[in-house]
Amino acid sequence: MQTTLRHSYSSLTPALLGCAYFVLAMLALGHSRFEGGLAFIWGANALLMAVLLTSRINDWPALLIAAGVASAAATSLWGMGPLAAVPMAIINLAEALIVALVCRRFAPGRKFAGSMRPLLIFTLALCGPANMLAGVAAAWVASLLTPVSFGASWLQWYTGHVLGGLTCTPILMMLLQGEARRWFRHTLRREKWEAAGLLFFFALATAYVFYVARYPMLFALLLPMVVIVFRVGNLGASASVLILAAIGGVATMTGHGPLHMIPGTMGERIQYFQFFLASTFLLSMPVAAELNSRRRLFQMLQESEARYRAIAEHSGDVVLNISVGGLIEYASPAAAEQIGCAPELLIGQDAANLVDPEDRAHVSAAIGRALAQPGDVQTVEFRPFVSTRGLEWCEMVARAVVDEHGLPTGIVSTIRDMSRHKARQRALQQVAALDSLTGADTRRAFLEKLDDEIGRVRRGGRACLLLIDIDHFKAVNDRYGHGTGDRVLAGFVEWLRPGLRSIDSIGRLGGEEFAILLSGTDVERASMICERLREMVAANPVRIDSGEAIRVTFSAGLVGLDALVGRDSILEAADKALYRAKHSGRNCLRLAA
Predict the structure, then answer these.
(1) How much is the pLDDT for 21?
(2) Is 303 helix (H, G, I), strand (E, B) or coil?
(3) Dihedral of the CA atoms 270, 271, 276, 279 (nearest 10)?
(4) Is-contact 48 21, C-beta < 8 A?
(5) Which 3 state secondary structure label does DSSP give 340?
(6) How far apart are CA 106 and CA 272, in angstroms?
(7) Distance CA 541, CA 553 (A)
(8) Which of 125, 151, 229, 569 has its CA 20 to 30 A from that of 474?
(9) 511 φψ region: left (φ > 0), alpha (ψ -120 to 50), beta (else)
(10) 315-422 belongs to which CATH class?
(11) Distance in Å from the first CA to the final CA of the chain
């Protein structure tokens, strides 16, 4: 979760920043200009960078003006004099502004002290363009106004400003963002005492190394610092670096500590100390940032696991964790009700055992696709191998679980009862397949049955198609109206049904045109059936509301299904036979040629 760094400061903030900047600059110029040029230690810009990185861009002008005035005043009074005041102020502001702009551009809205990527961007911006460019300008000014050479001035600037930024900016940002306050508020008392003890021990160890030890033992400080990083986190890492800077810096400047054993000037010893301090920072802070990210990730995983357990254990759907090999690793409590098996008994079983053998190939294919495409969700319907309380159809939704390399380590799936949905689906299909007026098959449904019957004929069966048209039906509509015409159509189908077998099908192709599919029947037998149907229809006129009886007859064309002929050709042959029947006086049957 990203936390914004932009805060709105009060109108007093620029003034407070200017005062703090002036004090820090005064201390640095008054105590670390060992060679009369630039200060070897500089922490004022660390404060300015921390404030810029934690404020809105709209507040920057006032903050920069306040810091610029403070810088110019300190340089005039304790630095290289009034001539260098304005140039050095501009250079100081440019350094801080470059760092702030680079960080805002490449890591917007992030905590630079607690995440690896923003911390890396901050370090590169500070050590790269900001101080390399600003150092050149500052060294040029110093070489003109002091006896210190350009190269020595640039090195003094670079080491002093990089050290100040690396050491102080992260912990100042934490303080400005309220991280220390949140840490004190949410950390257990035992952990607070542990952190205080570790930092106190580290302070004693640092004091011993710099004031008591007779041999250079700087390496001895790395172990307690690593322990602090692991136990306290990024706040402890920043505090330990600050403790090391304070104790070690004072000791080195007063002629104590292992760096005093190095021959050279005080400025050179301070530079060595700054390199050591920068090394400890680059060791501790990135590790702390990485550990902080892992802690957040672990917390997110714990929360996700809690949500997953709550959903899985209280859901009516069955939740399964399936290994890459297809074995069940977890089954939710709903398995007892839905599958009829206790969840603990499913652990270690092959997930395919839950599926009807006819559907196992489809389920296995879906699981294979989920493993091959970890980012996609696969859905498959299947019949269960064991059915409980009327469970006929299930739906599985599966998705792969991946490791940190993106490789699948298993499958998380939910199984839900689809029986009622399937029943509704079948009911809707049946309704859609029947003509609402007559109850006969719709044209589409009948043609599908005809295609299936042609397939059976190709496998050695036999069947016939009877195409029927009611005689003079237009005259019925014209004389009695369409309502009566509908009664005639419905009554016509009603009188046809008793003459058909259960394996036969009747469909309405359109208007008054019908078709009958006679399965397992040759043309001779189909002709006899057709004649019987004509007699039944003619002998049972349709009575309308007025009491009048309307006698109905039909013309028919008959064709036997041929394994070598397609559906369209069969329909065309039956239609030609029907046409001949109509032109032969109607109320008769004609066979296809």
Answers:
(1) 95
(2) helix
(3) 140
(4) yes
(5) coil
(6) 32
(7) 9
(8) 569
(9) left
(10) alpha beta
(11) 80
- Please write the tens of the pLDDT for every residue from 199-251: 999 999 999 999 998 888 888 888 898 888 888 887 888 888 889 888 988 88
Residue 247: how many other CB atoms lie within 10 Å: 22
Q: What is the helix (H) or strand (E) element at residue 542, kind and residue range?
A: strand 542-543
Taking CA atoms, 135 is separated from 38, 125, 479, in Å, by 10, 14, 107
* Cα–Cα distance measured from residue 396 to residue 67, given in angstroms and rounded to the nearest whole number: 64
Which numeric CATH code is attached to 1-177?
Answer: 1.10.1760
Closest C-alpha among 103, 85, 84, 95 to residue 45: 95
Distance CA 383, CA 419 (A): 9
Q: Which portions of the chain are predicted below pLDDT 70?
A: 1-9, 109-115, 304-316, 386-391, 419-432
Compute the distance between CA of residue 115 and CA of residue 292 in angstroms, rounded to an integer: 7
Q: Which two tokens stand for residue 46?
A: 């660390």
Residue 160 · residue 114 · CB < 8 Å: no
What sign does the CA torsion over 30, 31, 34, 40 have? negative
Joined together, the tokens standing for residue 371 give 């493993």
- 257: tokens are 């500590």
Helix %, strand %, coil % of the chain (to 5): 60, 15, 25
How would you classify residue 556: left for phi > 0, otherwise alpha for psi between -120 and 50, otherwise beta? Answer: beta
Structure pTM?
Answer: 0.54
pLDDT score recorded for residue 435: 86
Q: Which CATH class is domain 434-591?
A: alpha beta
Both tokens of residue 163?
Answer: 């050290």
514 beta partners: 468, 508
CB within 8 Å of 84: residues ≥ 6 apart? 75, 141, 142, 145
How far is residue 194 from each of residues 134, 136, 240, 242, measured CA to CA in Å? Answer: 42, 45, 14, 18
Residue-wise pLDDT for 424-446, tens only, equals 666 666 666 788 888 899 888 89
Give the model's pLDDT for residue 518: 93
Question: Of the candidates 87, 168, 89, which has an alpha carbon nearest to the alpha carbon of residue 126?
Answer: 168
DSSP states of 167-201 as a string?
Answer: HHHHHHHHHHTTHHHHHHHHS-HHHHHHHHHHHHH
Q: Where are the domains of the chain?
A: 1-177, 179-312, 315-422, 434-591
SS (H, E, C) 540-585: CCEECCCCCEECCCEEEEEEECCCCCCHHHHHHHHHHHHHHHHCCC
CA–CA gap between residue 278 and residue 490 (Å, rounded): 96
Q: Which tokens in the block code for residue 390?
A: 């009327």
Alpha helices in 315-334, H assignment, sequence order: none
Q: Provide the pLDDT for residue 310.
A: 63
- What is the rounded CA–CA span in Å between residue 229 and residue 339? 51
> Residue 372: what residue type?
A
Report the relative pairing of strands 505-510 and 463-470 from DSSP bridges.
unpaired
Report yes or no: 397 and 413 within 8 Å, Cβ to Cβ: yes
